[in-house]
Amino acid sequence: MKKADIVVIGGSAAGLTAAITARRHYPEKKTLLIRREDQVLIPCGIPYIFGTVGSPENNLIPDAVLDKNGIELMIAEVASIGREDNMLETSEGEIAYERLILATGSLPTKPPIQGIDLPGVFTIQKDVDYLRNLQKQLEAATNVVVIGGGFIGIEFADEINKATGKNVTVVEIAPHCLSLAYDEEFCVEMEELVRSRGITLRTSSKVKAIKGQDNVEEVALDDGSTIKADLVILGVGAGPNVELAANAGLQIGTQTGAITVDRTMRTSDGNIYACGDCAKKISFFGGAPSNLRLASIATSEARIAAANLYGLRRENIGTVGVWSTSVGNLAMGTAGLTEDMARDRGYCAVSATVEGPNRHPGKMPGAAKTVLKLVFEQHSGVILGGQVMGDATAGEIINALSACIQSRMTAEDIAMFQTGTHPALTASPIAYPLVNAAEMAIGKMGN
Amino acid sequence: MKKADIVVIGGSAAGLTAAITARRHYPEKKTLLIRREDQVLIPCGIPYIFGTVGSPENNLIPDAVLDKNGIELMIAEVASIGREDNMLETSEGEIAYERLILATGSLPTKPPIQGIDLPGVFTIQKDVDYLRNLQKQLEAATNVVVIGGGFIGIEFADEINKATGKNVTVVEIAPHCLSLAYDEEFCVEMEELVRSRGITLRTSSKVKAIKGQDNVEEVALDDGSTIKADLVILGVGAGPNVELAANAGLQIGTQTGAITVDRTMRTSDGNIYACGDCAKKISFFGGAPSNLRLASIATSEARIAAANLYGLRRENIGTVGVWSTSVGNLAMGTAGLTEDMARDRGYCAVSATVEGPNRHPGKMPGAAKTVLKLVFEQHSGVILGGQVMGDATAGEIINALSACIQSRMTAEDIAMFQTGTHPALTASPIAYPLVNAAEMAIGKMGN
């Protein structure tokens, strides 16, 4: 019988990060990572397989990182967790553990639409063979419909359109694409860009049925219209993969369907931790359950879970929600709550938006417009969130904002923020967007 | 007699930002900005006049920003401050004020070197005509020597070399260029790049004399060697311009020579505030006087001073020191203390350096190496500083780090930091450099 001190189940962002972190904090403990896949895809890179990077093989997490960190790898299916005797049943035999980390991830959501199982309808699976097959079928396709206009949907649509020139239509149920991440004015900017690149967007549109004989032929919408399609990609989110945990009797959240964990990432069994898409999340803002699932949340949770395995030292502050996307030369990032979300949750939200060049003087080469919107709670002045669009530096501006949010800075704090600025790299210190937007918001708070 | 509620003396980064901020916080107050210059240069952009942007005219702060913010402008020389009756004597007559903000800036340091006043020796003055003359003389020069290998010196050297191909030599007294901002390994990287671009660096070299008849002809070093020069640029720093304040009897710091201010940016006269290069600074780390002078510090202080004019609401946390530079495709940023500085000041410093691609997968276009070093206090785990090199995104990575420093985050906090990541914009969430470096440092702390 095989034995390891620490066993991690799952080899994607959460599992890999948990195993690396466990080794860093407990180098004397034997650490085993069990995963189902021969090869592991970089989750956020999946859309880019279909354009920019060209193949699943160019979007893999190299296993060398396991060796380098002294992590043993086993490719196996875990059948069950025996919690009485800390024993796993796997396709490769029994494995005893001292501490177990569940990083079993998520499974693509398949809404109960008629025709959803027709050939030619694909979900987004983190599986090399599945995606290779999708790529092959894509070659033969003429009309592609992406259902779901979130990040993944937009990125898939743009990559396919860019690389193949096929007719690509995105169907989004909400009035705007990306509306779970951005306020309307940012969504509109991205929609205009995406449309200008030749993609058709059908917003406020609900899919009624997917139709076809041997293969998908069209997507029928609620308004009676139809869209020709010989390939459909479903990008409508994912749900936690908790079968193994549930079968082991671990507590599962009734609202989220995710494995219940406390702020230390421990499950209802003190020897078992969970992190990433399979683990229950609560919001940094107010503490209600959160359905956000991002690789960067998963890795943060993994670092908490693994560091706590033999002595609690880290607590999860809750999910802030920080992410970014990029189409053509436009990058957009978001952190925390949008203004709409903040209002919906009951905050008295005050916002300010500034725009200006991201170089100074504006005549410096590469200067591009940056637009930044910050959202604050009116009475406390605490930052609740922000959105940015600009060039590639927007991806790190949003991380500076994330640090402000995680420290619960107020608008006054941000107004005094000491930034580094440089003509060739950033906006002017006189008009640095974070600081300027905070000042503009203060003017609206009436405090 | 002219009268304004708020008078700001000085029109560069600090003065302009103070006036804008005063208008934002006190829109009912009449605000007058008095400056000496017809046109105001973007201070950080000055080196780029000699290459990238081509002329002083392309590096101006447009006066439209004054109009837009309802700020009155007067071009005048202020002769004296009458503190008894709140009255300024100026070349345009007397002006009464209710509150006064001094933003008189700094003057280039001129070390007492033999020959320093020879024709052909230039300091770096924020003056359009002076720089136009420098630019003209540069055209005729063959051998250019830049004395001082700090940011400004390196940026001048690279811009002149890049635009004109002239022989450019940088003379630096310390063993490495940029050593006031970076630890040795970062300095070396920049030095290698600068040398590879055709610039000669003479480090550990002290200038003994500048020689010539009617014009500079050579620079003589302490080791007996000489460097041919028909143009010399002095980039050895600047000292506070406090003549007006000193003549008015305001308290001046004995160590710094700068106008004494408290944390609210008030001088020894409750109606007079000071900010920017002329104002005394204390370090965020330990509170000792600081000689750092940066436009981004100046603007932060200006926002504090102006907001406090009619009721104190903001306190200066002290100077963190955040800045960045860029040569060719390499950007380097620094925030807070370097490891050497931290040790010199008596901290038990622990550092960790990580490097990796700034995209994921590494096959994404535009992927470049990012190197990040973080410095922590060993016992508390509090972040003391960090340095980064990479592509243009380094300019904002350093701002994310600045937010961590200003919030006095610990390595544990940063290890749990929730970042936004994206294949086309940032490093992978599994190896995001801020987080990874914090984890590596924790491993060395032995806590």
Question: Superfamily at the CATH H level of the largest domain in chain A?
Answer: FAD/NAD(P)-binding domain
Number of domains of chain A: 3
Largest interface pair: A-B, 89 and 89 residues
Low-confidence stretches of chain A: none
Mean pLDDT of chain A comes to 97
- Judged by helices, strands and strand pairing, the structural class of chain A is alpha/beta
Label the CATH architecture of the largest domain in chain A. Answer: 3-Layer(bba) Sandwich
Q: Mind summarizing the main beta sheet of chain A? A: 7 strands, mixed
Strand content of chain A: 25-35%
**What spatial form of chain A do the alpha-carbon principal axes imply?**
globular
CATH class of the largest domain in chain A: Alpha Beta
Which oligomeric form is depicted? homodimer
Q: What is the straight-line distance between the termini of chain A?
A: 67 Å
The count of helical stretches of chain A stands at 11
What is the helical fraction of chain A, as a range of percent? 25-40%
CATH topology of the largest domain in chain A: FAD/NAD(P)-binding domain
